[in-house]
Amino acid sequence: MSDTPRTAIITGAAAGIGRATVQRLVAAGWRVVGIDRTDAPLDGAELLVGDAGDASVIGAALQRCSGSLHALVCSAGIPPSGPWESRDDWDEVIRIDLSAPYEALRICMPALTVARGSAVLVGSIVGAVEGSMRSPAYAAAKAGLEGLARSMAIIGAPDGVRVNVVAPGAVATDFDERLLPADHRTDVPIGRMGTADEVASIIGFLIGPEASYVTGAIWTVDGGRVVLSTADSRLVT
After folding, report:
1. pTM flag (> 0.85)
2. What is the pLDDT of residues 123-146, one digit of tens each?
3. Are 154 and 106 in contact (CB under 8 A)?
4. Which of these, 96, 99, 103, lies nearest to 79 by C-alpha position?
5. Catalytic center residues
């Protein structure tokens, strides 16, 4: 095996799932270049402050990887925002939550091909499984990520590039609005919110060699929420 560390670009690296993924990969010996709008210290990783939807920022991150990229993790996003009929909110959510991952994949695909690497897009159970009264844009973007991942999995497969999605449910980060106590979620069979590190552990698996036969897949990480019927929700304590 080469002594050269594996390289990863992670968008939305300064907080939440992105930050937990940075920490996990750095601990495993990866070289990580993070992208975030917030200038926050990332121990053991490099940070580029900028917009994850900006092609020049993605290109600058790629330059730091010296042309070979083993993993791309698209975790940057903005939460559901509204009112739902606001076209400005629609455009911004779609730009960040759907177009930005497409742009990152488009720019990084040649480098992922060199390394026979993989990409993970951070989706949501909202969109593919649930609708959103508050933000149809968010639901549309997250549902669109799944179609994007399946398509890019087909495109990348001949070159050994894998593309998958993790679809979290309620996760205890600043991104998630707390509608119920984190440790007493009656809408989740496990009974609590998940943690960013629990999602990051799935990301780490999907970009690693153990998942070498996994591509075009959607990995739901929600404590069983989407399999719980309304009638059965009263059984969760």
Report:
1. yes
2. 998 887 777 767 899 999 999 999
3. no
4. 96
5. 138
